[in-house]
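Q: How would the C-alpha cells look for this protein?
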Amino acid sequence: MRDVIVLGSTGSIGTQALDVIRANPDRFRVVGLSAGRNRELAEAQAAEFGVSEVAYGAADAVKLIESVKADVILNGITGAVGLEPTLAALATGSTLALANKESLIIGGSLVTSAAAPGQIVPVDSEHSAIAQSLLAGTHTEVAKLVLTASGGPFRGFTRDQLATVTPEQASKHPTWNMGSVITTNSSTLVNKGLEVIEAHLLFDIPFDRIEVTVHPQSVIHSLVEFVDGSTIAQCSPPDMHLPIALGLDWPNRIPGATTPVDWSKAHEWTFAPLDEDVFGAIRLARQVGIAGATFPAVYNAANEVAVEAFTAGTIGFLDIVDTIERVVGEHTAPASVTLESVLDADAWARTAAMKFLSK
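A: Here is the predicted structure in C-alpha cell form.
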C-alpha cells in the first residue's frame, strides 16, 4: 500500500491519477490533495477519498507536503508555480511522480541536485516511454533519445497558414485529451521543446543526442536508440492512465491500466521529420537548454504570458513563439542559479513579455 499526495487534483493529470487510485484501492491510499480554483470538485474528491483537508494554491501545497507523510507525491500542477512544491517533495525523500515538467525545466540543477537517484519518476508519456525503454541497456550504451510528437492540430501547416489560427482551433488536440494550456503548448510545439529540455535533465543525455520525430498516431510514445543500432520503443494507445499508473507504482506495472493495442487489426504508424523552420519552438528550446542557467525559466515564463494573451484573443498564434524568442534574447543570466534567481528570472520574463506584447 502506497500513501499518495496528489497535487493539482482537479486538473487533467490529477483527475486521471485519482481514476487509477480509485481502481486500485489495494495499492494506493490518498493522504493529501491540493487544487487550484475548482473548490467544488476538490471537496468532492476529498469526501470520496477520506481526505480531511485540501490545500489550495502552491504555497499551501508546500505546507501539505511538509506536514503529511507520503510514499509518493504526484505533482500535477500546471506551470512554473510547481517549482517550490517539487523541491519540497524531494526534500521529504518521497518518490516524486513528476507531471509538472516546468518545475524541472526552470529549476534545472536546483531540482536534479536535490533528487536522490531514482527519486524522480517521469509522468509525461514521452519520458515514461524513455524510462521504460532504457531498461533494455545501460547509460553508456545509449546512442540517442527520440521523442515523438503528434505534430498537433497544425501538422503540415505553413507559417502563412499558422498566422490565422484561432484559440479555439489551437485548443483541440487530434489525439490527446489535455488541459487547454498544455494543448495550446502542443499546437505551437513549445511543449515538445520543454520536453527536449526535460529529457536532457532526466536522463543526462546531451542535446545533440536528443531528436524529435513526428508520429501523428501517438501510439509510439518515444524511443531509445542504442549503440549497436537497436532501437527500443514503448507503444500503447494514447491514454495518460498508463504513465500515471507507472509513476505512482514505479517500477511495478498495474494490470489493466489502459487498453492495449489490438493486434487483430491492421495499423499504420508513420514518422516524419519535424519542420523546425515553421515550428521554431524546438530550435529555440535547444538553445536555451544549452545556455542553461535561468534561460529555460525565461523561455517558460514568456510562453505562459504569451499563451494567456493568445487565448484572450489579443495576439496571433505566431506571436507566441516570437514573443518567447524576443524575451530570451534580452535576458542576461545571473552569476549563480538559486531558487531566488530562478524566481526573479521568471518574474522578469513575465514583465518583459507583457511589455513586448503591449507594443
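The CA atoms of residues 182 and 191 lie 7 Å apart.

The chain has a mean pLDDT of 94.

Upvote if useful.
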